[in-house]
Amino acid sequence: MANHGSNGSSDDLTFPLEIPPAKIRFTKLFIGGEFVDSVSGKTFETIDPRTGETIARVSEGDKEDIDLAVGAARRAFDHGPWPRLPGAARAKIMHKFADLIDQHIEELATLDTLNAGKLFSWGKAVDIPSVANTLRYFAGAADKIHGQVLKMSRELHAYTLLEPIGVVGLIIPWNFPSTMFFVKVSPALAAGCTMVVKPAEQTPLSALFYAHLAKEAGIPDGVINVVSGYGPTAGAALTSHMNVDKVSFTGSTEVGRKVMQAAAASNLKTVSLELGGKSPLLIFDDADIDQAADLALLGVMHNKGEVCVAGSRVLVQEAIYDEFVKTLVEKAKEWVVGDPFHPNSRVGPQVDKKQYEKVMSYIEHGKREGATLLTGGKPAAKKGYYIEPTVFTDVTDDMMIVKDEIFGPVMVLMKFKTMEDGIRAANNTRYGLAAGIVTKSLDTANTVSRSIRAGVIWINCYFAFDNDCPFGGYKSSGFGRDEGMVGLQKYLQVKSVVTPLYNSPWQ
Amino acid sequence: MASRTVSWLLARSLSSSGPRSALLPRGKKLGLVSRGGIHRYNSTAAAAEEPITPPVTVPHTQLLINGKFVDAASGRTFQTLDPRTGEVIANVAEGDAEDVNRAVAAARKAFDEGPWPRLPAFERQKILLKCADLVDKHNDEIAALETWDNGKPYEQAAKVEVPMFARLFRYYAGWADKIHGLTVPADGPYHVQTLHEPIGVAGQIIPWNFPLLMFAWKVGPALATGNTIVLKTAEQTPLSALYVARLFHEAGLPEGVLNIISGFGPTAGAALASHMDVDKLAFTGSTETGKIVLELGAKSNLKPVTLELGGKSPFIVCEDADVDQAVELAHFALFFNQGQCCCAGSRTFVHEKVYDEFVEKAKARASRRSVGDPFKAGIEQGPQVDSEQFEKILKYIRSGVECGATLETGGERYGSKGYYVQPTVFSNVKDDMLIAKDEIFGPVQSILKFKDLNEVIKRSNATRYGLAAGVFTQNIDTANTLIRALRVGTVWVNTFDIFDAAIPFGGYKMSGHGREKGIYSLSNYLQVKAVVTPLKNPAWL
C-alpha cells in the first residue's frame, strides 16, 4: 500500500482518457458451462462511472435463471466429478485457472476500472495478480482439509469427515469485483463445492470473464455458474432457494439482514455475512505523525473510500492533534482525483450515480450538523461521479457522518485524551469490522488490540490483507470469516462417524 | 489423485496378467486372477538378452555445493553400477568430510544470510511449484536415470515415482504459506504466541531403494519451512538427485539452499551426522546404521534426529478374505520394487481356513511374475540394486531352506548376469526362523499360518520393528481391533503401499523416530519459539 508519490498539483485529470476500446467479450449469464441469454431475454445497462455512459448491455438474471443455475450446480455436485476429485486434482485445475488469470491481467484490470472506476495501475499491479494468488493459496489448501480422530469416553472409534457443504450461493459486491469473487470462489472450489455467483449489478463484467477462464482451465461445467442481475430479484431468488446449501454474502448491513431472513424463511441454509463498517484508526501521542497521516488517508481514500474496512473514523490523541491536522491537510492534496486510467490519479469516480448522490448527501448532512469541513466536500468534476477527498472535524458522536457507513472518500477526525477514552470511542459503533492502531508502545498496541471489538486489527499498518489472514466482522459487521484456513470451514460440513470398538489395547 | 492414479499405474505395470485388485482399494469389485499366466522366470531369455540401452545420458556426476557442480576436494570418484549387468554407468565424485564441511558452510551461509528463509512463504511456494513443473517436463529422462542406477522397472519410475515426486513438491508448496503458530492461553495477564521458525541447516541421508521419492520426502518439507539442506545420496544411486537438484536451481532455488553430496556412509554420512553446524538430521536406511546416526547426533551437538528404518511388516489375511484378492495384494505388498521396501509385507500371516488355497495361489502368482530388463515394457521385476544385496538375499533363501521352510517357488538367481533374483515363496515358515525375523529386502515371501485373532496380533507384534502392517478382511470389527492392536506406524486395510503426500509415514519401536509426509513432517523442520509479554488491562484473557 505504498504512497504513489504523485504530487497533486493538477486538477484536470478527470477528463476521460481515450483508452483502447475494451472488447467486452462476455455479457451473458454463465450456466452449466455455457453463456446463455436470460430466460426473460431482458438485459440491463452497465455504466462507466467516469462518464455515466453505457459500456454494454448485460443479461439480466432473474428467479428462473437462478433456478437453472442452481439446477446445474446441484447436478454438478450430486453427480459430477468436482466433489469426487481428490483435493490434489482440484488444486491442479485451480492452479491452471490462476495461470490463465495471470495471462489476462491487463484485460481484467481494464474491465474493473471501466466498470467500477477503480485505479487501473492498482488493478494491474495489485488486485488482479492477488486474485490469482488467492486461487493458488486455496489450491494449496485443497489437499489439506483434515478431519479428526476423536477421543471417545468409551470403547468407540470415532472420527470426523469434513465434507463439502454442497451448492453455495455467493453474492459479491461491486467495490472489489475481482477480489471478492475469488475470496469466495477459491475456498468453495477447494472444498469441493459447486456454486452460483451473483456479481453486483454495477460490476458484472469481470465475473463473467472469470467464468470463461474457469471453463478454459478445466473446471467442470456446472461447478461455477454466474448470474448477473439485481439483488431483489436474482439475489433474493438465490438466498431463498430450497436447493442452495449455503449463502455467503458481502455487502451492506441492510441487505445482509434480508439475506439472513430469506435463509431462515426458506431452508435454513447456513449464511455468512461480511457487511458494513465504520472502522476506527487510533493514533496515539507517540506516533510518527507523517506515517500516521499517510495511513489515515490511505485508510479512507483508497478505492475512493468504497471499502468495507475503510478507516473512516480517525481518532487522534490530543497532544499531537493539532500537528496531525496540519500534516493531514497537506498530505490530502496528494490524493489526486482523476480518471482511473490516468497513472497520476489516486481517487477515481464513485461507482454509480446512486453512490455518488449518497456520499454527497452525507457531506451535506455533515455541514448541516455543524461539523467543520477541513478539506474537500465538493464534486471534483463536471462529468462522472468524482468527489473530492473530504475531511470533517469537530464532530460529535450523534452525527450521521460519525455513525453511518458513508462508503466514500470522507473522513471524520476526532480527538481523544486517554487510551481508555480512545478505546471507548473506537467501540462506540454498531459495527466491528476492522481497526487500526498507530503507536510505538508495545503495551498500548497489545491492550488496544484486545479491547477493540473488531475482526481485524492493523498495528502501524492498514489494509494488510493476506490470503492466510482471516477477515470478517463482529457485531453488525457480520459473521463468519473469509480468507485463511478458517475461511475454508464455512464451505465444509462436519460429519462424525462412530462405531463400536472391541478389545482395543488403548483408549 | 495420487493414490488412485498411482494404484492404477502400479497395477498396470506390476500385474499385467493379474487383476488390478490389490491396488484399487476403494471398494471396487474385481475379477478373478487370470490362470493363463506363464512361468516367465523359468526362462533365462530376458536376462540373457543384451541390456536395452537407456534412453538418457548421465548429465551430472559432480557434487553440488553452493549452486555449482564441483569435484570432490580429494579429487576422488567412485563407480556407480548398472544392476542389470554390474557394469559401470559413470564415475561419480566421492564426497568426504571436507566436502561435507564445504556443503554445510554453504548451507549455513544460505540460511544465516541468504534470501531463502527470508522470502515470504508465498514466494517459496511459487519456486517449489516451478520445481515440480520442471520435473514434470523432464519426467522420462529422470525416470530413465532412476531405472538405470537402481534397476527398478522403468514404467514404475516414469508413471508412478517421478509424477509422485512432482506431486509431493506441489503438496509441500501448498504448506509453505500455511505454517501456523498458535496464540496461547495464559494463566495471567500475558500475551503468548508461538512462532514456528525454520530449524536451520538440515542434514539428510537417503537410501537407494526410492532415490527420488526419499529425496522428496526429505527435501520437500525442509524447503517449504525455509531451511537449507545438505543431502547425502546413497552411493548405489547418486544420479537422479543431481539431475533434479539442477532443475531446482533453474526453478529459482537460491545457491547454497540445496547441496548434494554423493558418497559413502562411513565417510560423508558420518561427517554430516556429526557436524557441529548441522541443526537437524533426517535419515532413512537400515536400523543398524540408524543407531550409528543417532549416536553421532548425540555425541556431536545433540541435533534432533528423525529416523525411518527397517521393518518386518505383517500382512494379515483373515478367514473371511477373498483369497484371490488377498493373494494379489500380499504379492504386491512383498514383491513391489524387487522387495526393496522398508515397509514390505514380509510376513504373510494367513488364517488356517484359507491357508492351503492361499499358498497354492501365491506360488502361482509369484511364478508368473515377469522378471527382466527393467527398461522393457511389461516387466514387473528388475534386478536387485547391487551385488551385496543380491548375495544377502540368496543367503537368506538358503537359510530358509536349511531351517525347514518349504520353498514353494524360486530360490535362485535369475539368469546369469546382473543381480536378478527369482521371485521366491516360502510356506510353513515359523516365527523363530531367520527369514521371519530379519529384514531380507528382496523378493522373498514368507507365509505363516495362524488360527485366531489374538494369536496373530501377538505374533505380528513380536518383532523389534513396527513400520507397517496390512490387514485383509471385510469384517469391520476385525479390522478395527487389528488397527489399534498392531504396534506399527501405518496400517493398510484391504490395500497396501498407498503413499499419498498427505499420509504420514514412520515407525514404532526400532523402525525409527518421527513421521515423514503429511502435516506431521513439517514439525521435523521447525523450531517452536514461545513469545510472552505482559498485558496491561486486557479486555479479556
UniProtKB/TrEMBL annotation, chain A:
<keyword id="KW-0560">Oxidoreductase</keyword>
<comment type="subunit">
    <text>Homotetramer.</text>
</comment>
<keyword id="KW-0520">NAD</keyword>
<dbReference type="GO" id="GO:0004029">
    <property type="term" value="F:aldehyde dehydrogenase (NAD+) activity"/>
</dbReference>
<comment type="similarity">
    <text>Belongs to the aldehyde dehydrogenase family.</text>
</comment>
<dbReference type="InterPro" id="IPR016161">
    <property type="entry name" value="Ald_DH/histidinol_DH"/>
</dbReference>
<dbReference type="InterPro" id="IPR015590">
    <property type="entry name" value="Aldehyde_DH_dom"/>
</dbReference>
<dbReference type="InterPro" id="IPR016162">
    <property type="entry name" value="Ald_DH_N"/>
</dbReference>
<dbReference type="InterPro" id="IPR029510">
    <property type="entry name" value="Ald_DH_CS_GLU"/>
</dbReference>
<dbReference type="GO" id="GO:0005759">
    <property type="term" value="C:mitochondrial matrix"/>
</dbReference>
<feature type="domain" description="Aldehyde dehydrogenase">
    <location>
        <begin position="35"/>
        <end position="497"/>
    </location>
</feature>
<dbReference type="InterPro" id="IPR016163">
    <property type="entry name" value="Ald_DH_C"/>
</dbReference>
<feature type="active site">
    <location>
        <position position="274"/>
    </location>
</feature>
<protein>
    <recommendedName>
        <fullName>Aldehyde dehydrogenase 1</fullName>
        <ecNumber>1.2.1.3</ecNumber>
    </recommendedName>
</protein>
<dbReference type="Pfam" id="PF00171">
    <property type="entry name" value="Aldedh"/>
</dbReference>
TrEMBL record, chain B:
<dbReference type="InterPro" id="IPR016163">
    <property type="entry name" value="Ald_DH_C"/>
</dbReference>
<feature type="domain" description="Aldehyde dehydrogenase">
    <location>
        <begin position="69"/>
        <end position="531"/>
    </location>
</feature>
<dbReference type="GO" id="GO:0004029">
    <property type="term" value="F:aldehyde dehydrogenase (NAD+) activity"/>
</dbReference>
<keyword id="KW-0560">Oxidoreductase</keyword>
<dbReference type="GO" id="GO:0005759">
    <property type="term" value="C:mitochondrial matrix"/>
</dbReference>
<dbReference type="InterPro" id="IPR016162">
    <property type="entry name" value="Ald_DH_N"/>
</dbReference>
<protein>
    <recommendedName>
        <fullName>aldehyde dehydrogenase (NAD(+))</fullName>
        <ecNumber>1.2.1.3</ecNumber>
    </recommendedName>
</protein>
<dbReference type="Pfam" id="PF00171">
    <property type="entry name" value="Aldedh"/>
</dbReference>
<comment type="function">
    <text>Possesses activity on acetaldehyde and glycolaldehyde in vitro.</text>
</comment>
<dbReference type="InterPro" id="IPR015590">
    <property type="entry name" value="Aldehyde_DH_dom"/>
</dbReference>
<feature type="active site">
    <location>
        <position position="308"/>
    </location>
</feature>
<keyword id="KW-0520">NAD</keyword>
<dbReference type="InterPro" id="IPR016160">
    <property type="entry name" value="Ald_DH_CS_CYS"/>
</dbReference>
<comment type="similarity">
    <text>Belongs to the aldehyde dehydrogenase family.</text>
</comment>
<dbReference type="InterPro" id="IPR016161">
    <property type="entry name" value="Ald_DH/histidinol_DH"/>
</dbReference>
<dbReference type="InterPro" id="IPR029510">
    <property type="entry name" value="Ald_DH_CS_GLU"/>
</dbReference>
<dbReference type="GO" id="GO:0019752">
    <property type="term" value="P:carboxylic acid metabolic process"/>
</dbReference>
